[in-house]
């Protein structure tokens, strides 16, 4: 719906591109025993992007172009760059409890315990000081709560449960985040984080480089590519 409305707006206002912000891991499905691969965010994935772009081209020609600028990148790559934008650290909000059906139950702050909160905390932990994340989460940082261990175990693939049906990173991204965060001086006494990291396989230099580099496939046009974006 968002992409289709973007195309409608572009045509109506004379713009020649609809630029989305769906990253690489949006294409990674949840694997369910006896069912197979299910991607709850299929409309953010690469397969949908290609199919939708084909439909737009068939109907309207080569304009507007439809693509995701973040398609080549992991959540880890996005998180690292986001930490360099401190003006937004106290403003952004990615907790799903802000979007409950019942308006009376919606939160205007991080709940600090859902899968989204746990993932956001985990993927930012390698790059932001612990004290900063405690402020972001209003004093209820998920990594500081031992009772959320099972949620983190699921995110990093240490549980028999499949990846949550939430917009969270895939297992490799979560594992890399946990291992990198555990190396921080201000995280050495984090019981939950250190316990998770101790159970994970070592993160090799090649795997870390892969997490921080571009991924294929993507269809980012050259004229939308800053010099440092695809390097």
Which features characterize this protein?
231 residues, mainly alpha, 2 domains, two-stranded parallel sheet, two-stranded antiparallel sheet, 9 helices, 4 strands, 6% strand
Written as H for each helix and E for each strand, in order along the chain, the element string is HEEEHEHHHHHHH
Radius of gyration: 19 Å
User: Helix content range of the residues, please?
Assistant: 25-40%
Strand arrangement in the largest pleated sheet: 1-4
Mean pLDDT across residues:
92
Taking pLDDT < 50 over at least 5 consecutive residues as the criterion, the unreliable ranges are none
N-to-C CA distance: 31 Å
Biggest β-sheet description:
2 strands, parallel
Estimate nothing, just give the exact number of structural domains.
2
Our count of helices gives 9
Percentage beta strand: 5-15%
Element layout with pairings:
Layout (H helix, E strand, L loop, with lengths): L1 H12 L3 E4 L9 E3 L3 E3 L7 H15 L4 E4 L6 H8 L32 H10 L5 H7 L12 H7 L15 H12 L8 H8 L6 H7 L20
Parallel strand pairs: 1-4
Antiparallel strand pairs: 2-3
Helix pairs in contact: 4-7, 7-8
Explain what this protein looks like in three dimensions:
There is one protein chain. It is built from nine helices and four strands. It has helices at residues 2-13, 46-60, 75-82, 115-124, 130-136, 149-155, 171-182, 191-198, 205-211; strands at residues 17-20, 30-32, 36-38, 65-68. Helix content is 37%, strand content 6%. The chain has 231 residues and is mostly helical. The protein folds into two domains: 1-73 and 215-231, no CATH class; 74-213, no CATH class. The longest helix is centred in the first third of the chain and has 15 residues, at 46-60. The model has no long low-confidence stretch (mean pLDDT 92). Strand 2 and strand 3 form a beta hairpin. The strands form two sheets. A two-stranded parallel ribbon has the order 1-4. The protein has a two-stranded antiparallel sheet with strand order 2-3. Helix 4 (115-124) crosses helix 7 and helix 7 packs across helix 8 (191-198).
